[in-house]
Each structure stands twice: as structure tokens, then as C-alpha cells.
Amino acid sequence: MTFVLGRDEDAADDRPAGHIGQYRARDGSHGEALHLDLDGPHAALIVGKRGYGKSYTLGVIVEELARTTGVAPVVIDPMGVFTTLAAENDGDTIPATVEPQPAVDPATLDPRSWCALLDLSAESAPGGLLWQAASEADTLDAMCAHIEKTDAPAADKRAATNHLTLARSWEIFDPEGLSPQELASEAVTVLDVSGLDTAPMNAVVRAVGEGLYRARVDDTISRLPWLVLDEVHTFFDGVGAAALRTILTLANDFDTRARARRESRDGDPASWCRPRRCCLPVGSAGCTPPDGPQRYRRLRTRTADLHAHLARRAASNRTRRCPCRRRCH
Hints:
Blueprint: E1 3-5, E2 17-24, E3 30-37, H1 54-66, E4 71-77, E5 96-99, H2 111-117, H3 125-136, H4 140-149, H5 154-169, H6 180-183, E6 188-192, H7 198-217, E7 224-229, H8 233-236, H9 241-259, H10 303-319
Parallel strand pairs: 1-3, 4-6, 4-7, 5-6
Antiparallel strand pairs: 2-3
């Protein structure tokens, strides 16, 4: 018998699943094989004491993802321990690309993220200048030029420009930086951020997380991204937390709709991870379902639908608060 974590039904099928080890009995003997479902989105947390093998287990999962069709694993490596994935091991080579100095497009960060990243209040004069510059410009140079053209006091302009100069010194912002399409490749992409401080490290996570999520919603990438983070607590205390919370709360809902329709697309394994929706009920007027995995036509999920979903979720959360101003659920 085989156990597959993240899958309720019988595992005796050909859907993607990664072998991560075996159950261990109390007497130390090995039990049944243990697999992880790689057929859809999951949120998983690996916990344990120092030296218990958390990063090792994460590496095993990443290796299984690299051997799976239809997924795009991206590893955020704050400790520099996953760079060896690209090295040959006993004749077994993992398709991996290591980015020792990852760069991201500054346009992927919204004005609020820029203020949080540079520790400026949006209500302050320098923060307001930064907010306006981030709304109007897409590069650091253009943002600085926008600030200089304003009629704000020289001290405020100097403060905002100095903060952008600090961001430039991190050397992680580049309009030609990594795009979601480049990250969603067949190989594992390891972003080595071990040489960065906490703030630029979080900026990379924010840009990569939001970029992959938007690309997935807009259906501009066909592979299912798997964002793997080591030492994840580092990012939930910084500007990267917003992107991670979005992925945790919304990405699963979006891809679950695709999982419910997978039986109609059981041809190409890569298409299992491709969200589709039937435009018309099968058999209705104007709908002639073709054969094979192309049974249903695509319908792109638009950004407006996403914003409406966010608004409904926020309204629901506001109505479910107890007198102590904490969430009751």
C-alpha cells in the first residue's frame, strides 16, 4: 500500500506524486512508502528541531518536483544550501539553474510595498513622494527623476531620493530581471539570496511571489509554480509576507477549480496544471465538445474577478470579528 500526502482518494493512478521516504515504526523499522501529491497546489510546513533534517527533507521534495512534468519549482534559498542541486550526484543530475545574484523588476512592487520596504510611512512627506514616484515610474532612475521634478521641499526630496539610493545599492532591481516566464521553466530555479540583508531578501520574495501568482491567474504560464522557501519565518516578518499570504489564501482556491475538471483533460500530463473552464454546458446550443484533452475551451480568469474575490473576502473577515477585535475563526 502506498500513502500519498495531500490526496484523499486511492493513490493507485498515474497522477504526479513524489517519493519522499517511508513511514518509520516505533521500533525503528521502515514501513510503507510515503509520497507527496504533486498534481495540484498545496501549502505545507516542515517543522523540527535544529539538525533534524528540515532542509534535507525540503531538498528531497525539490528533487521530486524536478522530475515531475507540468510543474515549475522555484526555491528561495536564504542559507545557500540548495546551490548543490545543480551538481551531479552518483550519475544522477537534477535539472537546476542557480541564480547567485537574482534581480527582479522594480515595477513588480506596488507603492505600498516600496514604502514598507524602505521603512517610510506613506503619510510622511518622503513616503508620499515615494508613493507617487512608484505609481508613475517603472525604474529606480525614473522614480528619482520624478521626485526631483516635484515642487516638494528640498529636504523631503532628498530624504526620498536617499532611500531609493539605498535600494539601488542592494543591486537586486533591474528592468530586465527574472520574469515569471523564465522562472516557470522545466528546471528547478534556485534563487540564492544568502548574500542579501533581510530587506532586499524580502523584496525578492515579494516580487517573485506576486509575479508568479499574477502570471498564473492571467494564464501566461502553463506550468504549476511551486514556491519553496527555506527559513520561511524570515519572510513573514517583512515586506514579502503580503505576497506569501496571497498565495496561501487565494492560489489554492484558484487552482482547485482546475483540479475539479481534471478528468476531462487526462491526455497530456502538463495540461493537468493548466486552469481551464468550459464556456458552455456540454450538449447545449453552440457547444460542440471536441475529442481528447481539448474537450473544454479556455476562458481566462480576469483580474477584475480576482479583485472582486479579494473584496468579498475582506468584507467577510470584517463581519467575523469578536468584541476583543480578534478573528473568531
